[in-house]
Write a structure and sequence with these properties.
The protein has 651 residues and is an alpha+beta fold. Among the domains are: 229 residues, Deoxyribonuclease I, Chain A (4-Layer Sandwich); 90 residues, no CATH class; 71 residues, no CATH class. 41% of the residues lie in helices and 13% in strands. It has 24 helices and 20 strands. A seven-stranded mixed sheet has the order 3-4-2-1-16-15-11, with no helix packed on it. Strands 5-6-7-8-14-10 form a six-stranded mixed sheet. The protein has a three-stranded antiparallel sheet with strand order 9-13-12, with no helix packed on it. A hairpin with a 2-residue loop joins strand 19 and strand 20. Helix 3 packs parallel to helix 4, helix 8 crosses helix 9 and helix 21 runs parallel beside helix 24. The longest helix has 18 residues.
């Protein structure tokens, strides 16, 4: 399957020499196979022919402007099998056939929406007409002159919900969904107003062909619109020099095999490292079988009950999932996208290096804060804490760990040590005691893997809504307070509190220890919560001295905190506007489900488990307005019955 890139740009007049030079620069950087331009403002065919020679794209389909407005152009590189379908003042539609002999064909449409609001309905009518002309996998890229959600606009007047809903409805009708983007969140800016007007959308069948397709909002080069680049990728394997050997994992189901204990015992007491691998010799490539079965299950769940599953579909779904889980790249500190192995390694090392590297600490100020803490550890407590570590304590600590969590780089989870303690326990106790008593640790034992995952923290016996209700009551009290004394609330971001704990501060609080001055606490270490409590103890003491708070903390002053733990902290008169984010969240969910081949059971599961559960967290604390509930119900009903835009179904 060939890969290509599609460049789309509102050039604001390609007759301008600066725009031509900007286009040449984009071509030199990305070598796109397709270039779609709108607002070319060119009515002279001769100029367009000369432009083809200048940029090196001899194949071109153009719609000439009427005066000094409008105009479209689609440039194609050589070697493409493309058939022209239709064009108008607002679109150019072509059919592309893959040249690798696969026979796969798909459809590409360059689109330019009406810039005036009064004519916007013509934009949506045109998109519906194009949808009904073909059932080929389809992608549309261009300037729709509309946004999908209020978060896609910054500054200026608030976008009307009905205006955005028309855009969402036409995408639903056409079974198209937004591809997202890398880079800047806005593609147009003028006079302090920014919007995401330019985007790429497509059908689910098109993303099945190109599961790793990626949209990049490039840097501004000329005019008030940024170029948009759509890459049609199929997630090829990395080059041979970048392939990594799969990491070893001790699988929990191995302990059920009768030979596993004997293999571990023989390997532990043996001096030879050339033992046959229990993983491959006994279980073979069970991981691939599991991956295949997962792909098959996902395919079956997504198909109607009456549809017969095909092998090709199963493999395609599994490939699509692997592509979504693959980390394509990261942005460095300068905002440059790094996708090579060396680039990714540099970004990770730089990011975590700065996170765990100690910052500048005002020692005099730190000591004045530490002096606020009163000693609470008695000599008897200290004697108990300084007693030697015993084998019983080490074993008890190990067996408190969750069996299958947090395996180290060696791939061994706590389950391995718990299950085979009789064999390996003596060596483990000796190694742990050696470190705890000498303070010396092998560097390789302290290695860890960097894993980028979202996370949440919970306290047993406490609901997260308890914190939200407390914050809401505080905000309500402050808003309604009329006393002359004045009150304040302090909102602190504790998301990186573990990472930012300075070790020099801990040394000042703890009069003795083996800590080396730097920064950060290891999450998952049973000692870390207690070390963190030392910081909170000092902060609690600091809160009793209000003047020092003003001198110590640089905080932003706001009228109110908009949200806390994902919920609003204060409810005004317009509750519908306060909870409008629920409608946006539901719209995004429904957009992602549109175009997928779902059975009635699949729709029922999505509506009950996902859509109807979406407002549950908010409803656990607040009563939602009736009109908002009706609107959410209406959206779910339209999805269930398959209504699209104006094509409503009876229910």
């Amino acid at each position: 399957m060939s890969e290509m890139e599609i460049l789309a740009w509102n050039c604001r007049g390609i007759g301008n020499e600066a725009a031509v030079q900007g286009l040449k620069k984009l071509i030199h950087q990305h070598h796109p196979s397709f270039i779609f331009l709108w607002e070319t403002k060119i009515s002279d065919p001769t100029y367009m022919r000369d432009l083809r020679l200048k940029i090196g794209y001899l194949n071109c389909e153009a719609v000439f402007s009427r005066g000094q407005s409008g105009g479209l152009a689609l440039f194609l590189s050589d070697g493409l099998d493309v058939r022209f379908r239709s064009k108008s003042n607002h679109h150019i539609d072509v059919e592309v056939r893959e040249s690798d002999g696969s026979g796969i064909a798909w459809r590409f449409t360059g689109f330019y929406g009406h810039p005036t609001l009064s004519e916007r309905h013509r934009t949506w009518s045109l998109l519906r007409e194009l949808c009904e002309q073909s059932a080929l996998p389809w992608t549309v890229i261009g300037d729709f002159n509309e946004i999908l959600h209020s978060s896609e606009k910054e500054g200026g007047c608030v976008r009307r919900e009905g205006q955005m809903q028309q855009f969402r409805d036409v995408l639903t009708f056409c079974d198209l969904f937004d591809f997202g983007y890398f880079g800047s969140p806005f593609t147009w800016s003028r006079a302090g107003v920014k919007c995401r007007l330019d985007r790429a959308v497509g059908s689910a069948s098109w993303t099945d062909i190109f599961p790793s397709a990626r949209v990049s909002n490039l840097k501004p080069i000329h005019g008030d619109h940024v170029p948009v680049l759509l890459g049609t990728y199929r997630s090829p394997p990395p080059p041979a020099g970048q392939r990594r050997r799969p990491r070893f994992h001790f699988e929990s189901f191995w302990v059920r095999h009768e030979a596993c204990a004997e293999v571990i015992k023989a390997g532990w007491v043996s001096d030879s490292w050339n033992q046959p691998m229990f993983q491959r010799s006994t279980f073979g490539r069970r991981g691939r079988e599991i991956e295949f079965l997962r792909g098959r299950l996902q395919s079956l769940l997504a198909l109607p009950v009456s549809t017969v599953n095909q092998q090709e579909s199963m493999e395609l779904k599994a490939s699509n999932r692997r592509a979504k889980n693959r980390l394509a790249g990261l942005f460095d500190n300068q905002g440059v996208w790094q996708s090579t192995e060396k680039g990714l390694e540099a970004v990770v090392i730089d990011s975590f290096g700065s996170m765990f590297r100690a910052g500048d600490v005002d020692l005099s100020h730190m000591n004045s804060v530490v002096d606020l803490v009163q000693p609470k550890v008695t000599p008897e407590m200290n004697s108990m804490l300084c007693a030697p570590y015993t084998a019983v304590e080490i074993r008890a600590t190990l067996f408190q760990m969750y069996p299958t969590k947090s395996p180290g780089p060696d791939g061994m989870p706590p389950l391995f040590f718990q299950q085979y303690w009789d064999t390996i326990g003596t060596d483990v106790v000796a190694a742990v005691q050696s470190f705890l008593h000498s303070g010396q640790l092998l560097a390789s034992i302290n290695y860890t893997h960097v894993c980028l995952i979202p996370k949440s923290a919970f306290i047993p016996g406490r609901l997260i809504t308890d914190n939200t209700l407390t914050a809401n009551e505080v905000s309500h009290f402050i808003h309604n307070n009329r006393s002359s004394d004045g009150v304040m609330s302090l909102k602190l971001d504790m998301s990186k509190a573990y990472d930012r704990m300075e070790w020099v501060f801990l040394e000042a609080v703890l009069p003795r220890g083996y800590l080396t001055p730097t920064r950060g606490l290891r999450q998952g270490d049973p000692l870390s919560p207690y070390l963190f409590l030392l910081g909170t103890e000092v902060f609690s003491a600091l809160l009793e001295h209000k003047q020092q708070i003003a001198d110590s903390l640089g905080v932003a002053i706001v009228d109110k905190h908009e949200k806390y733990l994902g919920l609003p902290t204060y409810l005004g008169w317009n509750k519908t506007e306060t909870f409008a984010y629920l409608q946006e969240s539901l719209n995004k969910k429904l957009e992602g489900w549109q175009g997928k081949l779902l059975s009635s059971a699949g729709k029922d599961l999505l509506v009950r488990v996902v859509a109807q559960a979406l407002p549950s967290y908010t409803m656990s604390c607040f009563l939602l307005p009736k009109n908002l509930c009706d609107s959410l119900h209406q959206k779910c009903a339209k999805f269930w019955w398959g209504s699209k835009g104006e094509n409503r179904k009876i229910h």
